[in-house]
Amino acid sequence: MTTDRMPPSLLGLGRDIFVMHILPQLDAKDVNSLRQTCKELDTLAKDPAVWHAIYNAMFPPPEAMPPIRQEGWEERCNDRCSSRVYAWGSAEAGRIGVALSDVDRDHRGRRGVNRPWPVQAFSDVVVRNIGCGGYFTAILSTHGEIQVAGDFHGQLRGVSPPMRLKASNAKFTAMSCGRTFLLGRDSTDNIYMWLHTRESDGVLLDLGGLQVQKMVAGWSAAAVITDEVGVAVWKVPEVATETFKVNYLVVPHTGGGEKGAGDWRVVDVAVGASFIAITTQNGKLFTTKLDFEAVTLPAPEYNADIHAAVNGEGITKVYTLLNRLVAVTANGHIVQTQWEDGRFTRVELLDLDDVVQVAVGDHHCLALTTNGSIYAWGTEPHSCGAFGMGTPAQIGAAGGETRPIRWFASDSTLAKPTRVHAPPMYRIAAGGWHSAAVGNRKCGGQD
To answer: Domain-by-domain residue ranges, the chain?
Structure first.
């Protein structure tokens, strides 16, 4: 029941204390509950600065962020809190958390879900981030839980309820999905690793006291950006229990000195099957060969061809899987290239603007733009539905090429990013032969 005034003990704190320091520490649900207790708190809770701060705390960038009026932050935050998880692509091994029999006919083919479809198993979770591996889809909730649909090694038969990953009752603040493993970081900056979904307890990684700024999972390796040594990378083991001592290699010239501080500070890293890519504060992209048999890694080299393709724009983000590298510029343009025979070839600037996030799967890529639109390109194998654009005939009508490979199955190719008909999305992910996203609930499951 709403009263006219705040309790006397709160009156003396002042408006600035509430708006700038107290209310932003709560989540959207708590603020909406608190504002019902008295009219003064309701008035304070309407301040756009409160909702802007809450949004940034609950949903760190990159997010699809179409321009809005400043007073629109409360609506955006509530929309984001009521968003839902969508998935599409191969339904094999329960990787998308959806059974084909539960999907409308116009959203599925013989081998998978071919248009974005809501995942009911995650319907009660407010999702902060989403990721995909080879055979699984994972979500990180705003309450710090990691849940996984599918299996790290594709051994699951059918669809099972998502498994909640644990680590000493930790609250997780970040996660990163590799091909067959997952990394999670908790609120005290411990990093855990999971190698099997049947083992819900994570393995604590012992990095020798390194202060980690960012962690990234790759195909079969992982990397961290640290304060002390710069970029450290290691090969993921097949088996690990309890605490795992990480024997990492350091990427030269990334930790302190001329190439590791100030404008040369590393801000992003991506780990391919046989290379590693980094971006620096001043927008430069460097790459080096990844060889775990070596005692030391080669010094990273400036990639002039990629910078030339984007006309010198600064590069802020890098994404990779296997041998494909996709880079995003500060102006939201994207360039892709392939690692072949120890070097990058076929550098190509793609015709797409305002990109805030890219997701790279085994054969296909997705891009998310500022207005929440998804674009797909690459190859959709065996009519699995990973593009999310419908049947092979519908992909062909959108400009793709289709090559029959067996009865009722085709490989479809999109040479350039092509719009996926879907609700506005906030986050995207791509895996083996599937894709996932967090998007607007109001649009439901239909396109």
So the answer is: 8-77
